[in-house]
Amino acid sequence: MLAENPTLTSVRVVTTCCLPDGELPHVLMCLNDLLDDFSADVTIIDAYKRTGGVRFMQYVAAREDPDEMNAFYRRWLFNAATEMAAANGDLESLQWLMESYLPGEFLTKAVAAAAANGHLRVLQWLHEQHHDRGYWGNTEMCGALTHEHAEVVQWLREHAVPRAECRVEVMDAAAGAGYLNIVKWLHDEFKVSVRSALSNAMSCRQWETSQWILEHGQLLMPWINWDQPAKDGALGFLKFLHSHSIGSPGGFTVSSARR
C-alpha cells in the first residue's frame, strides 16, 4: 500500500515507531491526509523543482485524479517534467515518468535536453529502451555542439544522423562552435550548404573553421569583414584572406587591431 500511496516522511517515522508491523494502514493514510495541506495545489513539475528527485513527484502523482485532470494538461506536465529530468541527467526520475506516470506517451523535448546538457547515459537509455517515443535525427545535436559536449556530439553522429531538413541548422551550430569535423562531415557526406555557416563561424571567431569553409565551400564572391579577425589578432586568417584576394582592409581594420 505504501508503494501505491506514498506518504509524508513524518508520518512514516511515527507509524514505524507506533505501528511497526504495518497494522492499521487506514490510520496511516488518515494521519497523512491530516498533515498534508499542500499537495492539492502542487503539480509534478512543482514537486521536481522543489526536490530534484522522484519521491515527491510520486507523492503528488498518487493524489492526482486522471479522470478529472485535462488529458492535454497532463501530457504537458509529463513533457515538462521529462525535459527537466533529462536536462539534469536524472535517469531515475525520467524512468519513473516514462514507465509509470504516462507509459507510452511521446516525448517532445527530453532528447534535446539531455543532449544540450551532455548527459550521454540518458541519451543511450532513451535510444535503447524508448527509441520510438522521442525525436531523433532532428536538431538535438545543436545543443550538444553549442555547449561543447564532444562525446555526445560523436555519439549522436553515429546513432542519430540529422534529417535533411535539419542539416543546415546543425551545420550552422557546428561552425559557430568550431566543430570542424562536423562541418566537414555534413559538407562532404550530405553536401550541406555552408553559406550561413561562414557567418556563424566568423561571428564566433572560429577562424580555422572559417578558413576551411572559404577554401572548400565554393562560395561565390563571399563578403568578408576584416575588422573582427583583426581585432581578435587572427593574423593567420588575415594572411589567408590577403593571399586569396578575399575582401580587403576597411577604414576601421587597423584601429580594430590596436584594441
From TrEMBL:
Stored InterPro entries: SecEffector_AnkRepeat
Superkingdom to which the source organism belongs: Eukaryota
PANTHER family xref list: ANKYRIN REPEAT-CONTAINING PROTEIN
Protein name: Ankyrin repeat-containing domain
